[in-house]
Q: What sequence folds into this?
């Protein structure tokens, strides 16, 4: 049973302090599936315009990603362009053209209706619901969202949340959603409205997992060269859910490991433009990075005798 | 042999979303020594004006802090007032009145001249050098600084850095100092100019230790109630250096544990105004929090067989 993802399939024009790409393969469903495909089969739901260079998707297809759920419609493909600040911690969106994505409603292929895990990427909550309504059985639903939907489609978003097991958002988004600056309290707010597991992505500061029993942190990987931060959050989600999909059981321990695998994939994503690095990374490199994450946070708790004044 | 600290002894007026205090005991030397005294004897170098409520310092004295190096001068004590944003992540300084601190040059008591560790709090680098010049022997020198000195006293600050083993600064400061947005690269820049160990304090995002061999992260403690963030960085430094002072040897392992003890003390500091919590916290509570830090970051690295697609 696969991981189903619905999200954008985009042509991104991105400028960072280190370079620029035009009309590069991007979008939440693309980054997610390029990442998750390292762990588990993925099925993509999305839409492109007639102008889309379909051969670009061969990169995903060659990795076993099922693209039968990608519709081709008259009109322009979704395009996003943005420029990053010198420290890569903020970006300015220059243009967002929804194109065929604006009024897209999905029809799920028959083979897509019983995924083990469904990831509702950062899209209109009404479209997230539209997809969820066509899923006949699913063990785990995760979703992402953004400021636009929190502002403009709050009611629909809360309906999604009620049907979601895991919410993955960034720190600004959860603060805005919950109206609460404290991240732990904001996570509790979300838990009361559905998603019992909350993952707060904090960019270079790492990620936080809050479930009903505990809180877990993983730091940002201390890369000396960050090339392009675009898609890091979706690569995280892909690594996280792909890792879970490859496991029979999901205890607290698997969830924690999955967060680290997600972080590892996020750290690979930013090493190159588009999904270049996510598509050529090997499992031994992923495991090596996971081990590095462990050595980044390991310390000894001294015996009480050792700290008496 | 003690931990020597030079820094401000201030009267702080602080407003947070949760309350307000006026002319409360504050300043880098005060927060540092209230924290470090939990681990090791501390000697304070500083200055107050004739208006200073000297009885306020009894709180430190009662914990064994040596205040013979605190001079009393004609004039006003150092005063700072600030107000925090709703999410406590930014603050506006309303007023800084240096008073007697403006042209203070210290004369170290004889008993202060052979500390094991010296901490040069966030003050004019010329005053940091003035103190360092009077120290006859010391095993470890750590220093803090801020944007003001990086801007206006860069040359003196670089002279301090050349005589420093450990630099403790926040993320904005090290980026400004090194002119480099990437924190690992910025730490390397610092290492080339003196301090071989760099600790980057990231507020709610925790702290990063960069030495010549490795990088270590500790997350911010996920407090649901942050009362007043003032002094958290100095409480961190006090816990970090106090812990080191209480140990014979300083290997990579002790440094990592020290960072966690520093983080624990920072997390206690913000639970109340001024140094109230730092002064009544017990060692068993500190150790319990250190154990919580460990459970916050512990995860299993799966065997390679477990992650084959």
A:
């Amino acid at each position: 049973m696969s991981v189903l993802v619905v999200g954008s399939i985009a042509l991104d024009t991105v400028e960072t302090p280190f370079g620029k790409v035009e009309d590069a393969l991007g979008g939440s469903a693309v980054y997610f599936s390029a990442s998750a495909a390292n762990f588990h089969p993925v099925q993509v739901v999305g839409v492109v315009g007639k102008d889309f260079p379909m051969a670009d998707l061969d990169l995903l297809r060659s990795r076993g990603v099922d693209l039968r759920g990608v519709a081709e419609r008259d009109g322009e493909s979704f395009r996003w362009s943005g420029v990053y600040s010198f420290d890569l911690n903020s970006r300015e969106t220059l243009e967002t053209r929804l194109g065929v994505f604006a009024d897209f409603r999905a029809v799920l292929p028959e083979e897509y209706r019983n995924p083990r895990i469904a990831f509702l990427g950062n899209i209109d909550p009404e479209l997230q619901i539209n997809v969820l309504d066509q899923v006949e059985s699913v063990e785990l639903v995760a979703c992402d969202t953004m400021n636009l939907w929190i502002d403009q489609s709050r009611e629909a978003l809360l309906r999604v949340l009620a049907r979601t097991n895991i919410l993955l958002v960034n720190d600004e988004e959860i603060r805005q959603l919950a109206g609460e600056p404290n991240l732990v309290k904001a996570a509790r707010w979300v838990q009361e409205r559905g998603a019992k597991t909350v993952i707060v992505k904090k960019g270079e500061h790492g990620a936080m997992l809050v479930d009903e029993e505990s809180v877990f942190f993983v730091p940002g990987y201390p890369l000396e060269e960050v090339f392009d931060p675009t898609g890091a959050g979706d690569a995280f989600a892909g690594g996280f859910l792909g890792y879970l999909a490859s496991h029979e059981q999901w205890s607290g321990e698997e969830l924690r490991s999955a967060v680290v695998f997600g972080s590892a994939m996020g750290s690979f994503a930013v090493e190159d433009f588009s999904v270049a690095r996510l598509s050529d990374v090997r499992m031994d490199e992923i495991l090596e990075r996971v081990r590095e994450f462990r050595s980044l946070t390991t310390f000894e708790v001294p015996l009480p005798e050792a700290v008496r004044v």
User: Anything to note?
Assistant: The domain at 3-300 of chain A is CATH 3.40.1190.20 (UDP-N-acetylmuramoyl-L-alanine:D-glutamate ligase).
